[in-house]
Amino acid sequence: MGRQIAAHGAEAVLAGIRTGTLDGVDERRAAAWRMRASAAGDPDDDLARHRFVIPGDPDWPGQLDDLGDARPIGLWVDGAGDLRRASTRSIALVGARAASAYGVNVASELACRLSDRGYSVISGGAYGIDAAAHRGCLAGPSPTVAILACGVDVPYPAAHQDLFAAIREEGLVISESPPGVNPTRLRFLVRNRVIAALSRGTVVVQAAPRSGALNTAHHAFQLNRQLMAIPGPVTSDVSAGCNNLIRLGKAVCVTSAEEILEQVGQAGDDIAPIPRGPVTRRDLLSVESKRVLDAMPGGLGVIGPAEVALKAGLPLPVALGCLGGLEAGGFLKREGTGWRLTARGRGR
């Protein structure tokens, strides 16, 4: 069916849907399309205002073919970006509409860092995590793609009209639904498969146990895309879905853009560094010097070199060498024939 549909142009596809003469399309699907098309506007006017991309077109993303029979017949596209190029290096960031401040901050920070690394960010244009992901990506150099459950000319939610306008300037707003179509609950669930298929990996930032974002995660898992999740507090219902994906082994736990790129990048080229705390001056000391510091009495107590060597379990010459080095480093201060800790030496 896909090859037959690809042989049609965008205008022929739309005309065929209306008349029922499109080859290779299941009659039941064609009948449903005809019913919806009868209430739709003028396709010529729609094509004059928006692009309609179908399989076989130069900018059709080939990864959507992984959906098989569930592949979209075509996509309405609005914006200055190139759909194929924007989806080649892309990450989907999805999550709860009723996101917490933690989730919004994490989503925007991840999106910005991914954009800086040359990855576009795909999301659904909704409140909460979606909006934070789009805004974070807009702060970087890479485009963001909003996949809507309504027509590309329908600002839903209405409060995001300015956000969608900003996305169109360098990125894309796309949809399976024709222009003018309003969203429905089913359309939100149906469009989630496109979000999962279009991206190289999906990151669930926050999700309640019955969140729609878990539907996107399910599609990503079924498509063998990289599925990742951001862990959250065990007391937070809005993170329960993410924590459960990790617990069941369906999603990889990630906490940074570097860890996300490790999952979707080239093997050996995008290894994320292991997070470590700051290196202190004490960390740079030798093992023997650390043992001498541990042997020193707390407070302002003074101790002689022989006692230091005994407590540290070191030969006296080694202990004396360490004492001199620690004094030079500001960890110890000499008092008569002994040494005591300084403020730096008491620090941990």
UniProtKB/TrEMBL annotation:
Transmembrane segments: none annotated. GO terms for biological process: DNA-mediated transformation. Pfam families: DNA_processg_A (PF02481). Residues 52-264 form the Smf/DprA SLOG domain. Belongs to the DprA/Smf family. This is DNA-protecting protein DprA. It comes from Herbidospora galbida.
